[in-house]
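Hi support team,

I've been running sequence recovery on a batch of backbones for a student project. Most finish fine, but this one hangs at about 90% for roughly twenty minutes before it completes. I'm not sure whether the input is malformed or the queue is just slow. I've pasted the structure tokens below so you can try to reproduce it. Let me know if you need the job ID as well.

Thanks,
M.K.
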């Protein structure tokens, strides 16, 4: 929820992914929880997509991208996202392990961030169909700060398996 007094909001894009448990339900529930974060409102989300694991093992993933409006600062937002991941019982046994819920900050307004805990735009956004294609579905003409128009990268990921779901 965002109060009427809150004006300094940023458009932020969140990538959602799940390939453990009921992945479709996990993504749908996470979308609801994004809207409930403090100082935040969910504006729009992409379709859900079924995607083959990229540099990862396990079941196919369900992925989506959401655009939120938020007054949370990037580090605060990351904490809130980790909090939601924990609600799904996410643990981190090793990098790219199957997960009940992964929430990544793909874009935070036009900001470029490089810190110990955050790299934004997400460094693999342009290389992964599971993030790029849902992003383009909701904002076909979006520009990635430091990289250029997102649609220019679609051809690079055309060989990755991704299928829009009926849900
Ligand atoms: N971190 C740095 N930048 C960011 C950011 N922009 N957003 C740090 C979120 N977190 C960011 O993340 C590890 C740390 O990254 C965080 O604590 C934060 O400080 P993590 O979620 O614990 O680790 P991870 O997800 O295993 O690693 P990573 O690097 O996020 O992996 P990716 O690139 O997200 O890839 N295939 C399909 N089909 N669908 C998927 O969703 N996901 C991955 C994970 C691999 N293959 C996949 C999918
Ligand atoms: Mg992640």
């Amino acid at each position: 929820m965002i109060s009427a007094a809150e004006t300094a909001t940023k458009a932020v894009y969140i990538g959602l992914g799940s390939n453990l448990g009921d992945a479709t339900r996990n993504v749908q529930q996470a979308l609801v929880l994004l809207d409930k974060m403090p100082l935040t409102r969910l504006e729009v989300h992409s379709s859900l997509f079924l995607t083959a694991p990229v540099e990862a093992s396990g079941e196919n993933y369900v992925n989506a991208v959401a655009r939120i409006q938020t007054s949370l600062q990037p580090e605060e937002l990351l904490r809130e996202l980790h909090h939601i991941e924990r609600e799904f019982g996410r643990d981190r046994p090793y990098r790219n392990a199957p997960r009940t819920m992964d929430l990544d900050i793909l874009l935070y307004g036009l900001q470029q961030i490089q810190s110990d805990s955050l790299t934004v735009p997400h460094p693999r956004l342009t290389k992964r169909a599971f993030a790029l294609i849902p992003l383009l579905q909701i904002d076909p003409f979006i520009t990635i700060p430091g990289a250029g128009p997102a649609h220019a990268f679609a051809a690079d990921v055309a060989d990755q398996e991704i299928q829009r779901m009926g849900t």
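--
Follow-up from support: It reproduced on our side and the slowdown came from queue contention, not your input. The two ends are 25 Å apart (CA to CA). No action needed from you.
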